[in-house]
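Internal QA ticket QA-208
Title: Verify multi-chain structure generation after dependency bump
Assignee: T.L.

Test input:
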Amino acid sequence: MEKKIITISREFGSGGRSVGRKVAEKLGIPFYDKELVDQVALESGFAPKYVEENGEHSPGKSMFSYAFASQGVPGIMSGLSTADFLWNIQCNVIMQLAEKGPCVIVGRNADYILKDRSDCLHAFIHADKDFRADRIVRLYGESEKSPESRLNEKDKRRRVNYQHYTGRTWGESRNYDICLSTSRLGVEACADLIVALVKANKE
Amino acid sequence: MEKKIITISREFGSGGRSVGRKVAEKLGIPFYDKELVDQVALESGFAPKYVEENGEHSPGKSMFSYAFASQGVPGIMSGLSTADFLWNIQCNVIMQLAEKGPCVIVGRNADYILKDRSDCLHAFIHADKDFRADRIVRLYGESEKSPESRLNEKDKRRRVNYQHYTGRTWGESRNYDICLSTSRLGVEACADLIVALVKANKE
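Actual output:
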């Protein structure tokens, strides 16, 4: 079965987004990352920044975001929590994008949301902590927290969110068709492998 | 860094051994599976059958195997349990094989034993339960137990053994450079991907 939709799940700082962008470029198909966030923002009424921060993370330490975010947002009126409301919109947007045709979708538990489609290739991109720590400082700059604690916090929030909405364990190989380490293989090689796999399934 | 040693860890019934054999054939390098068992048997004094059954599994229900297996085996005299004695010999044999040159090593926690070598490519092969159940009946025949319970038992014993000796979680993508699903991608395609990766690292 031809694999038209490629979902890329990734550890923070692993370069999974770059892998996804390269795969989309090499295959000449749309790459949904920022566009997906914008669409969810449009349909939910949340600010894009809020969707980006909370669409694949369990809530951080501050619970104020819940209260503020819910001001005037219609989903809250139906009794759903902010997180559940966001999850529902995200599911719809991702399923609609997949219906539109071949594409690469990064993050947001798309592997689970599209698990029943046989035309998807689900990839997980991970990397050693040192590689990721170095990468986030280069890409996003320093902060008052150590790179190590920034990674731990993001990892934890993604893991909890994934477990909560999918019942699966984050990073478990069985959830994916292919898992690759960018720190061991390189970003370019990971993209090439995924492209080779998609092309092999076309033949 | 060139990847000369390829370790293949695999779920029971996934076809990981076939992937390993194909990779070795395509690269023209030795394939260690039965040979590894024979070498461990030779160095430990255990029967090959015993090594094969217990080298990567936690003990099954019967504890008699412990008592019988230890008759006259020298390692037991040093106070090690049968399992720990077998583990030590296996570590030595695997490290010696890796020293000999390029090869493919299947199973026996070789990914962990060789984790400090940078010239290794560590692969994990898994598959859906239906695919595995069908495969074990075709390869090993029917038994009084259902294929499902045979899979569950083997999975559990490998998971416990791996966790005990490595402190890692069995099947977690972070332990490997590449994880592949044979039920989704096919045995041949998985072998081709690993070969492509090894060749790309040579260039």
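Spot checks passed. The first helix of chain B runs from residue 16 to 27.
Status: verified.
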